[in-house]
């Protein structure tokens, strides 16, 4: 069934339907539309259970039957935003997964010399030791002693992942088993010797890609060194489980 032209084009009066190119005055079109709105004001709105009976509703229904269900534009935008958010979250999770540190069983064995950190009279004295977990070691190696001692967090910045502070007495032997923070690539040792101008107060070592770590941190009178444990530096038993002053 074909709908009359006057019904399909409600803005055009019936007596002008034969001339589709004729432009009616704006005031006529507005008055006609206002009349149509008053006529349809009391009618119920079209719903999936109650389809529209107007020509436009029949046309949309035929389009849906031919091409499938029609999705409103705001629903499409909402779906696109959800897909974009999901893809960003997956990308972040993948990036975090790549920064995981290899699985190591770590033993840091600290051995302090009997003449550790002598004072002006030559008497040995305790010393403060800091152990850093770093992503990069350039800032640590280039920094000054006092800069690291006073503002290590600001100097190291985002490369500082973790820090442990402990006091070591002369002749003491300790063992540390730290749990590395994901992203750790270097372990750095900072020793606050009394005579910093003659002392070698820092040491840096890179983590291997795989395998267990068993290192010996030797605190001499005025120097610190880190080496793998072997028969030469295995001089006895270490005390396990120490009190960390600060992290």
From TrEMBL:
- Spell out the residue ranges making up region: Disordered: 34-55
Keywords associated with the record:
Lipoprotein
Q: Respond yes or no to whether keyword Lipoprotein is given for this record.
A: yes
Stored Pfam families: T6SS-SciN
Q: Where is the composition biased (Low complexity)?
A: 43-55
NCBIfam families on file: VI_chp_3 (TIGR03352)
Q: What is this protein called?
A: Type VI secretion system-associated lipoprotein
